[in-house]
Structure formats: structure tokens, C-alpha cells
Specification:
Layout: H1 2-22, H2 27-38, H3 40-54, H4 57-68, H5 70-80, H6 86-114, H7 119-141, H8 144-147, H9 149-168, H10 184-197, H11 201-221, H12 223-229, H13 235-258, H14 266-284, H15 290-318, H16 324-336, H17 338-353, H18 355-376
Helix pairs in contact: 1-2, 1-7, 1-9, 1-13, 2-6, 2-17, 3-6, 3-16, 4-6, 4-9, 5-6, 5-9, 6-16, 7-13, 7-15, 11-14, 11-15, 11-16, 11-17, 11-18, 13-15, 14-15, 14-18, 15-16, 17-18
Amino acid sequence: MGSWFVPLGIQQVLFAWLAAIVLHMDAFAVGIAQVALMAPSILFLPLGGLVADRGDARRLLLRYHLLYAVPPLVLIGVLSMGGLSYPLLIAYGLAAGSIGAFAVPTRDALLPMVAGPNLPRAVALATALQFIGQLLGIAAASEADRIGAVPLLIAQSALVAAGAIAVWRLPKPSPHPPVVHPSFWRSIGDGIAEAARSEQMWPVLLLNFGVGVFYVGPFMAVLPIVVRDVYHGGAAEIAYINLAFWAGTIVAAFAFAGLARRLSLRGRLVVSAVSVGAVILGLMALQPPFLAFNALCFIWGLGAGITLTQGRTILQIVAPPTHRARVMALFQLGLGGGGPIGAFIAGSLAAVLGLKLAMVLPAIAMTVLIGAVLVFSRIWSMRTVE
């Protein structure tokens, strides 16, 4: 996980820095670039989950690590020739996003095999370690203004390739029993139907999709422009807001690792956390001093840590093993698939209505969605235990 998510943290800051600071694109163009990075999730996350459910997840993840090391090397070649352009950045985003979409559900499918007897604790620790890796990558990428992109891209490629060694040392999954598999679309539909039938899974997945559209979108497309135009910052300031957010996520994840088996009202925690996010996004629209802006990012990260750990735990416990990778792919699709939709919407709102409304309107929309889920589901009262 560390060998994947440290490079992902580097990419998160470096990609926004290249689009907003180096190429100096406007909010709409930055939003489109973020769409290119996240849009492959819409196409490939369900397929990645299906492939992981049917195949050898360890062997598949090994291949994804080796493939994911290639796009940074190509970008290094482009930068060394002085040929960086907006279309090439879009191409990089599409390639990296496509490989990542296959890797995420494959890794989630492997987690129960190494988790031991306490799956909720393992999910919380895995989430915390994931964001520690991202935090380290973000910290490294904050030096982009000083050292440039090439050293960071070299580190990104080398780390993810080295992670193949760790993947090779994972226990080999049990072979799948020989069965006649239905068609691709029927298999995808079967995974969706399994989630829709569960009174515990569908409200979590719907709220997670709302997080992708109304929170991830503005975070990726609007906040880098706020840093540039309101706070007159660069790569370091983009890194600071990311560091504050992911630090909050890590704190929450570690806290819930310790409380893992004492909790049962996990749905109530998810609703409370996403509700706090709407308040935070609205307060950010007031454009407070940069230190206060970072404090809001930290609190927002606390909510994200609760949402991710408890949402993933609910799904890992409730989803049957035969459908687990597909269900976890749907969970990630909420973030990875909703994110590009939200980035496009938020970037368009920022270009037409301004930065403030590009944050206020998603906060209002998320509040409406939370209310609808509370009315039409039992998420507030449902109990989920291992």
C-alpha cells in the first residue's frame, strides 16, 4: 500500500501543479484535467472488480504495479524535451487513471486474506496507512517549485515498481471453484443488484457517490484555483491544504482502528461525517485566512476518515465473498467516478459563477442528498457487526 499511495500523493499535487501553475490553466481547464485523471474509473472500476473476482488477485496486482510505473517515465521524457502541453497532460491522466481503476478493487479483494480475525480493525489500519502514504507523497511534491517535476516523477515510478516485490510476498489466494461465468454485463449487473438488495449497502454507496460528486470534485478542481487566485500560492500551498486534509483522515482512521469492534451504529457515523463536510465546504466559501482554511481542511479530513473507514467496513462485512471485489469497486466508483463529474461541474461553476458559488452549491446539493437517504433508508439506526 505504501509503494502505491506515496506515488499517488506525489501525483495528486504534481498533476494539479502542472495544470494550474506550470501551464496556468483556468478553473474550467483544471477541472477537465482532473476529469481525465478520474474518468477512467467510470469505465474500468466495475471491470477491475469483475476481473479480480474471477482471477488471481495477487498476480493481477503485480501486473498493475509494473504498468503504473510507466506513465511517469513517459512524462519525464516529455518534460526533458520541453514538450509539456495540456493534451499530453490529459493523456497522462487517462493512462494513470485507467491502471489505478483496475488496481483498487483488486487490492480490496486481497485485504480479507491478510486481515486476520478482526476485519474492521484491518480496514481502519489499511485506510490510515493508505493516507500516510499519500501524506508522505504530498509532502515530497510540495518541493516541486524548488526541484521541479522530474525528480518527483522518478521517485513515483521507482516506488510503485518496487512495490511489486511486496505484492509477490502476499499469500496466494485460494483458487476459484470452476463455474460457468455469465456475460460481462450480466456479471456487473449482478454485483449492482447484490448491493441494491442490501438495506445496509445501498445507502452507503449512494452517500459515497455524493461525496465523489459534491466533495471530491470541488476539492480537485476548485481548491487549487483558490490557492492560486485568492491566497497567491503555488505547489507548497497546494501541498499544505492536501497535508491538512489527509492528516485529519489519518487521525480519524487510527482512532477508529482502536475502536473498531466496539462500534455497531456505523451508518450513523457515516451520515454525521458527510454532514460535517457540507458545513466545512460552505465555510471555505467565505475565504478565511489561509491558516484557518487549512484548519477547515483538517476537520474535513477527519470526516473523510470516518466516512471511508466505516463505509468500507460496512461493505467488507456485509458483501458476500463471491461479490466482494465488485461491491468494493462500486464503493470506489463513487469517489473515482463521481469525482470527474463533480470536477467538471465545479470547474464550470467556478468559471461562470465564481469560486464562492462553486463551493456553496455542492454543499447545498449534498445536504439535500443526505436528507433523502435519511428519509428512505434505515442508515441512522442500522447496526453492522462482524
